[in-house]
Specification:
- With about 170 residues, the chain is of the alpha+beta class.
- The chain contains five helices and eight strands, in the order ααβββββββαααβ.
- It has helices at about 1-15, 20-35, 110-115, 125-135, 140-155; strands at about 45-50, 55-60, 65-70, 75-80, 80-85, 95-100, 105-110, 170.
- Strands 1, 2, 5 and 6 form a four-stranded mixed sheet that branches.
- Strand 1 (about 45-50) and strand 2 form a beta hairpin.
- Helix 1 (about 1-15) runs antiparallel to helix 2 (about 20-35).
- The radius of gyration is 17 Å and the shape is globular.
């Protein structure tokens, strides 16, 4: 899995640096995976932040939706535009979206391991708990927010083993 992700990341980086659009890059990596990694797939959220324009262009390929916390309105936008997992369907087209970023907004990305972590009673952490926690930690810096989320998931699981990967990324727009 690690090798597949590294190869996918390298191919995406090469295409994006070569000025391919996000959707074009995903289409090409999908073709590559269909050809070279039969039966395997990759989920990902690909985002490009334009600091001058204060925008985020993104595409979500079968990954958990990114969360965009809008400080001014107190709302959460789910960033789910994109398509299915990479490497599963030949000639699948991907879409992309661009959203404006305002001062105080926070982008939170996370793997499904955050949602699916179970406590000893077998209950999953879940999206409702994650969304509430994200807003509760919204006033922390990005590192503090990710630590608060990871610690809460660990506390929820108590001594339960982690069954899936757990990654949380927060980006604060200042």
């Amino acid at each position: 899995a690690g090798l597949l992700m590294a190869a996918s990341r390298a191919a995406l980086r090469t295409m994006i640096e070569g000025r391919a659009s996000i959707s074009e890059a995903l289409y090409e990596v999908n073709k590559l995976l269909m050809r070279d990694a039969a039966g395997r797939f990759v989920t990902l959220f690909l985002g490009l932040i334009d600091l001058e324009e204060r925008t985020l262009s993104y595409s979500n390929s079968g990954h958990t939706p990114g969360l965009l916390l809008r400080k001014d309105s107190g709302t959460t936008d789910e960033l789910s535009v994109g398509g299915t997992v990479l490497g599963a369907f030949e000639d699948f087209g991907y879409t992309e979206d661009t959203v404006d970023m305002e001062t105080g907004d926070t982008l939170v990305l996370y793997t499904d391991g955050a949602l699916e972590q179970k406590n000893p009673a077998g209950k999953e952490f879940g999206s409702e708990r994650l969304y509430r926690l994200v807003w509760e930690s919204e006033n922390l810096d990005a590192l503090g927010m990710t630590r608060a989320i990871a610690n809460s998931i660990s506390d929820f699981a108590e001594s339960g083993s982690q069954r899936d990967d757990l990654t949380v990324v927060a980006v604060k727009f200042v």
